[in-house]
Amino acid sequence: MRLENRTAIVTGAASGIGRAIARRFAKEGASVIVSDIVEAPIWAPSNDDLPTTETIENEGGKAEFVQTDVSSWNSVDALVSGAVDKYGRLDVMVNSAAVFEAANILETTEEDWDTLMDVNLRGQFLCCKRAIMQMMEQELIDEVRGRIINLSSQHGMIGPPDYLAYAVSKAGVAQMTRQLAVDYARHGIMVNAVAPGRIITGTHPGEPDMTDPDLPYSRSRTPFPRLGRPEDIAGAALYLASDDCTYVSGHNLLVDGGWMAY
Ligand SMILES: NC(=O)c1ccc[n+]([C@@H]2O[C@H](COP(=O)([O-])OP(=O)(O)OC[C@H]3O[C@@H](n4cnc5c(N)ncnc54)[C@H](O)[C@@H]3O)[C@@H](O)[C@H]2O)c1
Description:
With 262 residues, the chain is an alpha/beta fold. It has 7 helices and 7 strands; from the N terminus they run βαβαβαβαβαβααβ.
């Protein structure tokens, strides 16, 4: 119960990595606000496709769903205000909501660029801003006012072929994480990122297509004998959210099966 009596918001928690983080946090005793633009998972294994809140309740945890569009200030403001009205405090903010596009610059329209930046970068900016506004009002508990965990990507650290807007958005997330860590460390707000490698989730619409030529490529680049699971990222997020993480801020933690070391 490493998050007992803690309140955590997880955006993008209907599906994939956000869902795994919400479930893990709830198992560790947190009250979890499952935030997403949709309630049903956009992809989940067919034997595990209930909305995240129902799954958490079935597992004995505490969770509620709040529909949120992270690219809208009003929506993000209502999300954080509602959590604080109910629980009195926001201990952990996890920003996992994102959209994905594999395209080079000639294939990327202005509209595609704007949509992706609105969710992936502006969305994390708005969520970090509103969370920090709240955390600055809170009392310190063991030197910490609050913790923010942003989902970046290994694709924000390298130039992956044909991922222009996505990779630029994730590099922006990593830089925003460093910047906020520096600006708010003295106030007791820890800001870190987790940078996943290739994790099998519903980032691609529909069931993961194991014949996708990208998967053998990802597999060949990954020294671990498998691709990543959402639970691999949940474990890293739990460390950053927990009291075990005491002197770490501005870090961009790769969880990639060794891809970036290869
Ligand atoms: N899966 C991977 O291989 C991988 C690799 C590196 C980084 N990441 C990052 O991890 C995070 C989670 O990825 P995932 O694979 O779980 O993705 P996913 O597509 O499975 O889940 C993303 C969730 O975000 C939600 N969402 C989309 N737009 C939203 C909006 N405007 N407001 C609120 N919610 C919105 C979706 O409904 C969905 O539930 C993302 O930030 C992604 O960029 C994933």
